[in-house]
Design goal:
Number of domains: 3
Shape: globular
Distance between the termini: 61 Å
CATH topology of the largest domain: Metallo-beta-lactamase, Chain A
Number of helices: 14
CATH superfamily of the largest domain: Ribonuclease Z/Hydroxyacylglutathione hydrolase-like
CATH architecture of the largest domain: 4-Layer Sandwich
Structural class: alpha/beta
Largest sheet: 8 strands, mixed
Number of strands: 25
Oligomer: single chain
CATH class of the largest domain: Alpha Beta
Strand content: 25-35%
Strand order of the largest sheet: 7-6-5-3-2-1-19-20
């Protein structure tokens, strides 16, 4: 058999997980996630894997197999389906979250093929079988995915832990993992995010202890920040709050949808008489009852942003005051560090009591070094491919494998676009086989935001913009009226007045010189004006704003903006 394994996202980075297994030209896609942008990607909302190389192969794609319902594993599905409409396989809860997301973005669900699976499903594609096994993660119905071939199984763990102290709905199926390990496992694709951390069973208990301590000693309103997809922690906070006879309010539009689905499917338990809806603040209602626990939830930066609004009294439901206790159960994810730091600074300026849960208590949903070793020992794979994590994390996982007897050549450290080829079970790595990268999503636009656009936005953020508007009579080759100069983000208006008149003179001189030609070349004239103004501004101010000449023809029938 010929088996090709490669990643279009998820290697050397946090998020954007998307892995492809090609077995004799039958293609299986494992997850399709997004990554959130860092601050230098101005205006970009999210980043998805560059999947376009699959468009020429979509007739070979058997389906997209989803491991769980976190955005870094399912968030790109709405973009992928625009170009590659193939069957989707997911557990019931994950599928409901996917459908909800697609409906929210205006998709007609009738045009897609949804196949709901269980951890005990077996799906046959000729000589290939796809099976699943239950894993423990912070969201229900998480599964590992197994692609069984004649040369052995390809096992993808996705995110997991072996913590069995949680609800039975979240517990790992060790029996199934043992059964998979008894058969030949050719390749284990195992997560590497926490490969540097030791197993510490106290972390879960420490989180419980901290939440118990804070909630039990607080007699006024409590506000808790949580990520909406971390249902395990949401349930934990709810259970502890109920123990002290508190009422629960959940804030956050997307969170409310996820919570509604989870309640409907019995993955979140909240007594009806303890779940309350907050009304808008007015003279008679402040939503500050002492028995309230308000869960402020959302994705990425949303909990931080909402807390800032509450401090500034801009929120319609909660205004944080000196009687409140605010519990931060959201450690910053990549791209939100500045927002998180600013939020904490803002919170500490209030007289409210601020409790920040130690970050080490919040990283318990990914496999630690000992759990990774245990997964390897249970499955006994012939080869290992670290996935889901930055390169240093993949490197540490390779070191772990070497500690338990694997040769360095049996653990493949790969980048997005590299291909691990198996021919009759023998591996070879081909570097940079496929072009990979990022598709930047700006609002509803996908792929229209490129490096040039980002560079222009960076320039705008640094030196601002300058717009010069002139009306031209092309028939008589003359300027009509006064040149208008508009400046934004360049320098204080009072200082700019010193340069405004000189810029008008430069504009007029460039135009008059150009009018000596037989015809007006609008593009050449724009370029000359831009270059002359830029040279002057850099000489005088050592700054380079984005300069935009706007030439408006006054001749009847001509286009307005040349």
């Amino acid at each position: 058999m010929k088996i090709h394994v490669y990643a279009l996202g998820g290697l050397g980075e946090n998020g954007k997980n998307m892995y492809v297994v090609d077995v004799d030209e039958q293609i299986f896609i494992l997850d399709s996630g997004i990554k959130y942008p860092t601050s230098e990607l101005f205006g970009v909302d999210e980043i998805v894997p560059d999947y376009r190389m699959l468009m020429n192969k979509k007739h070979k794609i058997k389906g997209i197999f989803m491991s769980h319902a976190h955005e870094d594993h399912i968030g790109a599905i709405s973009h992928l389906l625009k170009d590659i409409n193939v069957p989707i396989y997911a557990t019931n809860f994950t599928m409901e979250i996917i459908k909800d997301s697609l409906k929210d973005k205006g998709y007609d669900l009738e045009i897609f093929e949804f196949n709901t699976i269980t951890p005990y499903s077996t799906i046959k594609f000729g000589e290939v079988k796809v099976t699943f096994f239950k894993t423990t993660h912070s969201i229900p119905e998480s599964v590992g995915i197994v692609i069984q071939t004649l040369d052995g199984s390809i096992v993808y763990t996705s995110d997991f832990t072996f913590d069995q102290s949680n609800d039975s709905n979240y517990q790992t199926d060790f029996q199934k993992i043992n059964e998979i390990g008894e058969r030949k496992v050719l390749l284990l694709m195992v997560e590497s995010i926490n490969s540097t951390l030791p197993l510490d069973g106290r972390m879960n208990h420490m989180l419980d202890s901290e939440l118990n301590r804070i909630i039990s000693h607080t007699n006024e309103r409590i506000i808790v920040s949580l990520f909406s997809s971390d249902l395990l922690k949401i349930q934990k906070v709810i259970d502890i709050a109920l123990k002290y006879d508190k009422r629960i309010a959940i804030i956050g539009r997307k969170a409310q949808r996820i919570v509604d689905i989870a309640i409907k499917m019995n993955y979140l338990t909240i007594p009806e008489n303890k779940l309350t809806n907050l009304r808008y603040i007015d003279d008679k209602n402040q939503n500050d009852d002492p028995d309230l626990v308000c869960l402020v939830t959302g994705d990425r930066h949303e909990p931080f942003y909402m807390l800032q609004r509450m401090v500034k009294k801009h929120d319609r439901l909660i205004h944080i005051n000196e009687n409140d206790t605010v519990i931060i159960v959201t450690s910053p994810i990549p791209g939100t560090e500045k927002m998180a730091a600013k939020t904490l600074d803002t919170l500490y300026r209030t007289d409210a009591t601020i409790e920040v849960i130690d970050k080490s208590y919040l990283t318990i949903n990914h496999a630690t070094r000992d759990e990774i070793k245990m997964m390897i020992s249970l499955l006994k794979p012939q080869y290992i491919m670290p996935v889901i994590g930055e390169y240093r994390m993949q490197y540490h996982l390779q070191s772990l494998a070497k500690e338990i007897g694997y040769d360095e050549k049996e653990v493949f450290l790969m980048n997005n676009g590299d291909v691990l080829r198996f021919t009759d079970g023998k591996p070879v790595v081909q570097r940079d086989r496929y072009r990979t990268g990022d598709i930047l999503i700006d609002g509803s636009q996908a792929g229209n935001v490129n490096d040039i656009v980002i560079h222009d936005r960076e320039l705008l953020s640094e030196d601002g913009a300058l717009i010069c508007i002139g009306h031209i009579d092309p028939k008589n080759k003359s300027l009509i009226g006064e040149v208008e100069v508009v400046m934004k983000g360049f320098m204080p208006e009072i200082d700019f007045e010193l340069h405004r008149e000189q810029i008008k003179i430069i504009f007029k001189e460039a135009a008059l010189n150009h009018f000596t030609n037989k015809y007006i070349n609008w593009n050449d004239l724009k370029s000359t004006i831009r270059d002359d103004i830029n040279k002057y501004l850099y000489k005088e101010t050592k700054q380079r704003p984005v300069t935009i000449p706007v030439l408006i023809s006054t001749e009847q029938g001509d286009a307005v903006d040349k």
